[in-house]
Amino acid sequence: MGTLIFTATVSLDGYVSDQNGDFQWTGPSDDMFALHVDRMGEVSTEVLGRKTYALMEYWEKLPDTEDQPAPEREFARRWRDINKVVVSSTMTDNELASGRARIVPQLSLAELQQIVKDAEGMVEIFGPTTAADAIRAGLVDEFRLVVVPKLVGGGLRALPGDVQLDLRLAEQRVFANGTVYLRYLAGRG
């Protein structure tokens, strides 16, 4: 049985993108990128929405050639090796860039629980819209937040505003640029 984790890079005021939809400020430094490479080594299944899947297609297509930086090649290799569940009512199978991806038109909590039950490792639910119902239902076991020292003043919230959960800090790291990685475990009873 797998473990469900939610990962997001967020502004200090809790947004994954600003009011204009811009998220370029979330770009990782080299040491932060190394953290993401390590994280992908734990993930067996990624659950994500259509827009995030389209964004991550870059990693499906990155050439594994010496002219690419080694960390990027490793991230791409790990990304290609995981299963992907794309939540979209508008995509077709022809739009999938990977044989390891499948589409579900709507993700019910029961289906998500089955995905996690069937997984051999970490199941990462990526994207605040895709993850919102699972967070509300208390299904997320771990929250992994990369907090960028930037205030954006509004935009797409990383976490639903109507949720109350007790979390326990399990890991923290501060990077040279002031970015902080926080890993929280959800309290269960």
From TrEMBL:
This is Dihydrofolate reductase family protein. Signal peptide: none annotated. Gene3D superfamilies: Dihydrofolate Reductase, subunit A. It comes from the Bacteria. Pfam families: RibD_C. It comes from Arthrobacter pullicola. Residues 3-180 form the Bacterial bifunctional deaminase-reductase C-terminal domain. Coiled coil: none annotated.
